[in-house]
Amino acid sequence: MTTITRFAPSPTGHLHVGNIRTALHNWLLAKKNGGRFLLRIDDTDAARSREEYVDAIRANLAWLGLEPDAEERQSQRLEKYEAAFAALKEAGRVYPAYETAQELELKRKIQLGRGLPPIYDRGALALTDEQRKANEAAGTAPHWRFRLDHEEPIRWEDGVRGPQEFDATQLSDPVIRRADGSWLYMLPSAVDDLDMGITDVLRGEDHVSNTAVQIQMFTALIAALRPAQQIPRFAHEALLVGKEGKLSKRLGSLGCDAFRERDIEPETLIALLARLGTSQPVEPIADRERIVETFDLATFGRAPAKFDDTELDRLNAAIVHQMAFEDVADRLPAGMDEAGWHAVRPNLAHIGEAGGWWRLVTGPIAPPRLEEEDRAYLAEAAATLEWSDDPWHSLTNALKSRTGRKGKQLFMPLRQALTGLDHGPDMSELLPLIGEDEVRARLERAAA
Ligand code: GLU
Is the C-beta atom of 234 inside 6 A of ligand 1? Predict the structure, then answer.
């Protein structure tokens, strides 16, 4: 059976790094198995869903190179949910409830006050037909709950957490539909997962108890409507936390725009998020194929995955150092060619720094800071300079035997004179880019 995964964001805000990680892992799981990756826009909440967020989600996935094979939208599938609802009602698995939010809150408080878990008491399930009619006659529109089956424990083999077991009596019958007819996330998601042939539901561990409930929905839907189908496999990954070990507000708003502003490469984010929280080391892997090949849910740990910005920056430098000219050409300063890219690349932590280094080639450079005794040395360098395929090595070799200088004394005044700095790209790569006339001029200027 072809693996089909989905990423199902609600377009009520921008994707944050935790969502990006979930999207990535679903994409990887599909690619690893030669399967399909769907984007499902969970936009049943019409009041909070916004089209600009849908556009941003698509744009972010494109930037990350996680393009979906297909896109679905819950708002276009409402009649499917209606049909599922009718079938579940027919099967006695949904029931109307009339409590107000305040009443439910009060019940919760009383339970908690007695040291009991705040499980819905099924008050509405116990109503007689007359009582229901009285509620309707009083103008109270019902919301709807899914009736959990209390007979059997709910079990599944979780792809990350191993065997899971829930006692349904310890769960509230979930509200699946509001009094205004709108849907909560649970039922539409189960209907879609069946309709779209989702084989693997991979999401954060904050969904574990939803899974327990949804497994019963899947079972009921399959029995009522789709006898040939199967419940998907489930895997719940540990959540992403900040370095300090807590779920931080900052992480919750850290998204692709912020990474782009910090000039972080999508491949850096991918390399980090693919491995964080797994037993595999985080490595600067720029080759997406290798990320796909080595992805393995069995390596995912139960401890929260710690997101560390300094690790991201370190990784970015290592990724940039591997990037080919073709992949970065449109982001480089005008005139910078492949040789220029190769010269400055090892000095970059971010691609945006290329312009700063390129100015060493195009000039003007900062006035060098030189010792008096070095001026004569630089005058000698200007006189010695002979242009060749490798002018730096011929120059330094010649100066070495003429002056007896070596090491720092030999190289540093030259670097200062030619770039105005005491550190920077490999001089042998810079010289051909600066060109003979300008190299000579810089040496002469520094000597004067
Ligand atoms: N829209 C849901 C969410 O963002 C989807 C959860 C799921 O993957 O099923 O939490």
Answer: no
